[in-house]
Amino acid sequence: MRAQRARRRAYGGVGTRASAGETSELAYKCANERATAALAAALAGVSRTGDVICLHGAVGAGKSAFARAFIRAVFDDSTLDAPSPTYLVQQRYEGDVCGADGVVRTREVHHYDLYRLKDAHEIASMVDLGESAARATSLFEWSERLGTSTPSERLDVYVRAVREDEVIENVITLDCGECEDDEDEEDEEDEDDEEVDEAYTDTAARLFRLSGRGGDWHERLRSLDI
Segment Disordered: which positions (predicted)? Predict the structure, then answer.
């Protein structure tokens, strides 16, 4: 059953739980953007309301590409417009989603980009962590700006480009092949590049390190289906 098309609005748990200090880590090497989308979709599949996902990486590392794929996967809509909210700070998405149990529920995703926020006062005026925790799954780009406001229970996602000759141990490699030669898909990617992100203007693979802190992230990371 396909979800109702999500709405984007612009703005200026169950299981065994671990202590906030306990972490669980996995690493994935994604050969291309399609592999990144597959990883994001797998995480979307185990996500739920109240989750906080903090994205770490340099400009152009792939944070926005990951966030876009995650949002599209949550709402089962590969064409959903999901630009990075660099100037707006926050974008909200809402739609009806059919869960694995066959029950349709309303989901929200709040996507933050904190790059332009410089101090605690700005963050407090623009970011309502309490509301997001109660209503949505929250994605934070440049989450370092949260400082002491960073939730102790969260998933940290560290992303960087991989050098061609780089050897990385203890990593799961994902290679989903080249993108299909489809004019609509190419047009969509061109539009995304212009509006969203400098990510994937190169062909380097990306390394994603997932670090689950507290809650039941250990179980959820181990259950990823990619």
Answer: 179-198
In whole angstroms, give the CA distance from residue 93 to residue 82. Answer: 9
Q: What pLDDT is stored for residue 154 in this prediction?
A: 97
Total domains in the chain come to: 1
Rounded CA gap, 151 and 18, in Å?
Answer: 14
Question: Which CATH number fits the domain that encloses residue 199?
Answer: 3.40.50.300
Q: How far apart are CA 46 and CA 37, in angstroms?
A: 15
pLDDT in tens, 79-99: 999 999 988 999 999 999 988
**Choice between 146 and 192, residue whose per-residue pLDDT is larger:** 146
Is residue 76, in this structure, part of any structural domain at all? yes
Q: Which amino acid is at 44?
A: A
The torsion angle over the Cα atoms of residues 66, 69, 74 and 78, rounded to 10 degrees, is 170
**R_g of the chain computed on alpha carbons:** 17
Q: Provide the domain limits for residue 77.
A: 7-222
